[in-house]
Design brief:
The structure holds two protein chains of two kinds.
Chain A: E1 4-7, H1 29-44, E2 49-53, E3 61-67, E4 78-84, E5 95-98, H2 129-141, H3 151-156, H4 160-170
Antiparallel strand pairs in A: 2-3, 3-4, 4-5
Chain B: H1 4-22, H2 29-45, H3 61-73, H4 77-109, H5 112-129, H6 137-154, H7 158-176, H8 184-192, H9 195-198, H10 200-219, H11 228-247, H12 254-290, H13 295-307, H14 311-325, H15 333-350, H16 355-370, H17 374-382, H18 434-439, H19 446-462, H20 469-482, H21 488-510, E1 518-521, H22 537-553, E2 559-562, E3 568-573, E4 578-583, H23 585-593, E5 599-601, H24 602-608, H25 614-626, E6 630-632, E7 637-640, H26 668-690, E8 693-694, H27 695-701, H28 712-724, E9 728-731, E10 734-737
Antiparallel strand pairs in B: 3-4, 5-7, 6-7, 8-10, 9-10
Classes of the chains: A alpha+beta, B mainly alpha.
Pfam family, one (chain A): UQ_con
Keywords (chain A): ATP-binding, Nucleotide-binding, Transferase, Ubl conjugation pathway
Biased composition (Polar residues) (chain A): 1-26
């Protein structure tokens, strides 16, 4: 009985090495890290989060999209964010802000600045774009009302109806054609 | 009243004239003799009607000459010439009438003989009226001019037609019998009337047409032998004797004739070449198809092209024929390739620098590049896939490494500039062999290597007797062409096959097993079709035992089974018979399950072997039904036949036992489709986050995806496909995700 088996070889993605210089536009390890993060983000298909570099030659500026998780007050809303990677990434956290006005206790309604521990003092090099995006998605549904950037929102959180009214008043749907 | 002076002047004039005519003869005897001479001379010269039956008065040439002498002495010859021409003019109606008669006849019967008769008659008139040559050149040429001017003014248009027919008839006669002198009088009459000068182009056109017809008749469709030499001999033997008549009149010897005919001769020669060139240009597609049986025609064409500058037309003709007859979906890729190779070989004969080839090959190459199976076809012929008969590669050609397009070496003393009609991106490919040329259709040879791996995988897995010599030989040959490093992967694949054997022997020596697996290194093999069937019962145990043995032998490696590939030799024992069968694993798995119970539904069976599609399951069961081990008992219920049953005629399952299919190695196309799925994720990502994008921007952004190597055209058609599936929409060239 002939059986065809295979010895356990490195996974297919390792064959990248046969296509030299495939993605990176420079030898920089940051660029390499960013493009591998992009690859894994693209292949992960986590629902409701997504990000992509704004420019193919400069990988340090990304645009991202976060959909409010179903079952939360943000369900059905989509927020555009911009991510800016520092040159010493991943040793320093990326700077992230909301482009779509987001009425949220931990988000500045005007500047879009976010108050999230892992983006500040709790940042670690093991985090990736994907984990940050997932954290942001869960932050929408579970705000940290103890240290609010938007005190109004923090106060209203306990009153879902009034909160929703305020949220919708500030929210602007994405204009995809821009 | 006239003054004295006037009177004196008139008197002086009179005296002068009188003295001139009287020539100091006594009295007026001079005048008398002049008068006599004048009337004799004018009567002698006066044109007469040939049809007039009254006999012409005989003139004594001595007297006539004397008369002319007298007139000449009186310096009256110019006046007499005028009188003569006046007379001629008055008599011309006689000729006009006859010309009209003859031409009316010709128009009604279209017989060139009528024209011939007319020409003879005109010659007769001409010589009848012609003043005697002794009277001097002036009067003769004045007469000839006046006669011809008048003649040409009255000849109708149909006369030219008649002359042409007549000349054509003489040509045919001369060609069939070159020594025939029958037409001599006719040509002389032509010459007398100066018709040759007048109709020179017409006569030449007769020659052209005759040559054209002859070339077409003898050469059309016969390509084996070069025809030019024969044609040249024919021209010398047949056409030149005829040409002597109109174009070398009055030549006294061969050299003189040669000089006279030089101009027209080279025009005729050119015309012959041009006709042949045109003919071969029209036939070129079939000539290429017939190659190498058409090398004669190609030699001719080469020579003709040097004479006739029709290279552009030739290229155009080939391109058109290719477009119409070759580069369409109805043509087999193999045929296109063969034709391409033929074209290369043919045009190398016709145009060694390769400019023509470059112009012609471009559309073929572009077309082949778009044909999905072209690479496979090329690779198959590279490894000499014997079944398809004629191979692209000539076995006698030495195997040589692929040539990369070289940069021009200006330091080379042999360097020559590009041919004058070379296009801007012309690349001299004089040294490239056929395979290099074909491989260069594609931008990189990597595609070939990939396809080669797939092909090799299929062939290696199909080998059952363990004889890999043929493949080894192929790889060694290909190594010479593509270089050692490119074929490293193939080398590993080949070694896997032999290693499998060795490992198997070792494992068997430790613990004998009926399984003889082929162990391949996944990293180096093209993707194999995956399946998630799980072998039930004893097969699973065997696999596990074998895997355990393997791990002890090679602790750093793990076996991963592809249980759906391979063959199983089975011996089935029934109550009344034994059946042996050589079947694919799925069949074996099913029949093993029948040892548990006799009746199964398809769904039950399928659920026991992991995931297997219903159609695949039915197909394998049909194999057993076919050899009467199972029978279908109601819809999708199968029952084991412990005791053989005669098949009821007419209910035999239509599905035949699966023949040996090629192992399911994923083709390069399938692999590309897999890759495209990855790229779609990227497109999705960018369109989600960056809004709508134009196609070229998507193309540049896709550079971020690892290994992306598609052209923007490929991307365009891919996006169109996505649009059809509703995944994307486009508006004003801007793509966005579909809802």
């Amino acid at each position: 009985m002939d059986q065809i088996t295979s010895s356990l070889a490195p996974s297919r993605t390792a064959q990248k090495s046969t296509a030299p210089g495939s993605t990176t536009d420079g030898p920089g390890s940051v660029t390499k890290r960013l493009s591998s993060e992009l690859m894994s983000l693209m292949m992960s298909s986590s629902p409701g989060i997504s990000a992509f570099p704004k420019n193919d030659s400069h990988l340090f500026e990304w645009a991202g999209t976060i959909e409010g998780a179903s079952g939360t007050i943000y369900a059905g809303l989509t927020f555009r964010i911009s991510i800016s990677f520092p040159s010493n990434y991943p040793y320093t956290a990326p700077a992230i802000k909301f482009d779509t006005p987001c009425y949220h206790p931990n988000v500045d309604i005007h500047s879009g600045a976010i108050c999230l521990d892992i983006l500040q003092d709790k940042w670690s090099a093991v985090y990736s774009v994907q984990t940050v995006l997932l954290s942001l998605q869960s932050l929408l549904g579970e705000p940290n009302n103890a240290s609010p950037l938007n005190a109004d929102a923090a106060r209203l959180w306990s009153d879902p109806e009034a909160y929703k009214t305020q949220l919708m008043k500030h929210y602007r749907p994405l204009d995809n054609s821009s | 009243m006239a003054s004295n002076a006037v009177r004196a002047q008139v008197a002086a004039k009179w005296q002068e004239s009188f003295a001139r005519i009287n020539r100091a003869e006594p009295g007026i005897s001079g005048l008398m003799s002049f008068s006599h001479a004048w009337s004799l001379a004018t009567a002698f010269l006066k044109p007469y009607d040939l049809n007039d039956p009254t006999p012409r008065p005989r003139h004594d040439m001595r007297q006539v000459r004397e008369a002319f002498d007298i007139i000449n002495k009186c310096r009256r010859l110019p006046v007499m010439l005028e009188v003569f021409l006046e007379d001629l003019h008055k008599s011309q109606h006689l000729i006009a009438r006859e010309v009209e008669d003859y031409m009316n006849l010709y128009e009604s019967n279209s017989d060139p003989e009528t024209v011939k008769a007319l020409i003879f008659r005109l010659a007769e008139w001409y010589s009848a009226w012609k003043p005697n040559a002794e009277l001097g050149q002036t009067i003769t040429s004045a007469y000839t001019l006046a006669f011809q001017t008048h003649l040409f003014s009255i000849l109708p248009a149909s006369f030219a037609r008649g002359v042409k027919a007549l000349v054509a008839a003489t040509l045919v006669r001369t060609v069939s019998q070159p020594s025939d002198q029958q037409d001599r009088p006719l040509w002389q009459a032509f010459d007398t009337l100066s018709l040759i000068e007048r109709y020179e182009t017409l006569i030449a056109s007769v020659g052209y047409e005759y040559i054209e017809v002859y070339v077409l008749q003898t050469c059309a469709g016969s390509w084996e032998e070069p025809m030019l030499a024969n044609l040249r001999t024919w021209m010398i033997n047949k056409i030149v004797p005829w040409m002597v008549w109109p174009f070398a009149r009055g030549a006294t010897n061969a050299d003189e004739a040669k000089t006279m005919m030089q101009g027209v001769g080279s025009r005729f020669d050119f015309h012959m070449h041009k006709t042949l060139c045109d003919l071969r240009t029209c036939e070129i597609f079939d000539i290429i198809v017939d190659f190498p049986d058409s090398s004669g025609a190609l030699q001719d064409l080469k020579e003709c092209l040097q004479r006739v500058d029709q290279r552009a037309e030739l290229a155009q003709s080939i391109r058109q024929a290719n477009k119409k007859r070759l580069l369409h979906p109805g043509a087999d890729t193999k045929d296109i390739l063969l034709s391409y190779v033929s074209t290369i070989k043919c045009l190398r004969i016709v145009d060694p620098p390769g400019v023509l080839l470059f112009k012609v090959a471009d559309p073929i190459r572009r077309y082949l590049r778009d044909r999905p199976d072209a690479i496979r076809c090329i690779v198959a012929s590279l490894v000499g896939d014997g079944e398809s008969g004629d191979s692209l590669v000539d076995d006698s050609e030495p195997i040589q490494p692929l040539q990369q397009p070289e940069i021009e070496n200006y330091a080379d003393p042999e360097w020559t500039p590009e041919p004058i009609d070379a296009g801007p991106d012309f690349r001299a490919s004089k040294t490239s062999d056929i395979i290099s040329t074909i491989v260069s259709i594609y931008d990189s040879k990597d595609l070939f290597i990939k396809e080669l791996q797939v092909l090799l995988a299929q062939r290696l897995l199909a080998i059952k007797d363990g004889n890999f010599d043929r493949e080894r030989r192929n790889i060694e040959i290909l190594k010479i062409r593509f270089g050692e490093s490119a074929l490293q992967v193939c080398e590993v694949m080949l070694r896997d096959m032999t290693d499998s054997r060795r490992i198997d022997q070792h494992v068997q020596s430790q613990q004998s097993s009926v399984i003889h697996p082929t162990i391949i290194s996944r990293h180096f093999w093209p993707a194999l079709e995956t399946s998630s069937i799980v072998m039930p019962g004893q097969f699973q145990d065997m696999q596990e035992q074998y895997a355990k043995e393997f791990t002890t032998f090679k602790p750093d490696k793990t076996l991963r089974w592809l249980p759906h590939l391979g063959r199983v030799q089975l011996e089935l024992e029934f109550d009344d018979r034994t059946v042996s069968a050589d079947v694919p694993p799925l069949e074996a798995a099913f029949i093993e399950l029948f040892s548990e119970k006799d009746t199964w539904t398809v769904d039950e069976l399928a659920s026991r072997v992991g995931t297997v599609s219903r159609s695949a399951a039915l197909k394998s069961l049909a194999t057993w039904v076919d050899i009467r081990v199972l029978k279908e008992d109601g819809e999708h219920v199968f029952k084991l036949l412990s005791v053989a049953e005669e098949a009821i005629p007419g209910t035999k399952t239509a599905i035949k036992q699966a023949t040996d299919e090629l192992p399911p190695v994923m083709s390069v196309q399938q692999q590309q489709a897999e890759q495209m799925k990855v790229y779609w994720k990227f497109i999705e990502g960018m369109l989600t986050n960056l809004g709508s994008l134009p196609l070229d921007r998507i193309q540049t952004m896709l550079r971020l995806a690892p290994g992306y190597d598609r052209t923007i055209e490929q991307l365009g058609s891919f996006m169109e496909a996505a649009k059809r599936e509703g995944l994307a929409t486009v508006k004003d060239g801007m793509w966005r995700l579909g809802k």
